[in-house]
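Something for you to look into today, if you have time. Could you write out one complete protein record for me, on any chain you like? Leave the record below and I will have a look.
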Amino acid sequence: MKKIFIIFFVKVTLVFTQSNVEIELKNLWSGSQSLYSINSLIMNSFKNSNYGTYLWLYKNDKWSEGYGGLTYMPTNNLQLGAGLGIEDAENPLRLSSMIWLGNKKWSILSLFEDGGSGKWHQINAKYTFNNCINFGLMEEKFSGSGPRLEFNIPRFPISAWISFLNANKKQSFYFAIKLRL
């Protein structure tokens, strides 16, 4: 059932020509532990419409989830979304929402989840200094909050980002490679 759900949302999301696809390979170091994962965020809009879809997929060696939903863009600087998905949990149903606020120089992307294994959120705020460097803040439930620095290669669809997070005096460090399609 989970595979059918994910395949359906991927196909529906990629049918539209105005798509933004990001795939991240990342590692979270927390103390002496390391957690490798892959995730993908796909967002698009219907042609000549304020509506679109989004899809979020996540997988590590112990857990996975996938969800998608509809988005509404009332202005060029605001996009709202709500969706439904599944995860590896005793109760697999997952509810999601997303808020994107921004323009070409700055943006804030917030992902919120509930259901199954519990509440989770991630918030990324970033400012584009130039076409090579983005700087901002990241906050993620369980991992903490702190600065985030992203390096882009102009005219090349790969970037790398790092984030140093602090949660209850526990230090975490993210390193990720992002591919934009």
Q: What stands out?
A: The two ends are 27 Å apart (CA to CA). The chain has a mean pLDDT of 89. The chain is about 5% helix and 70% strand.
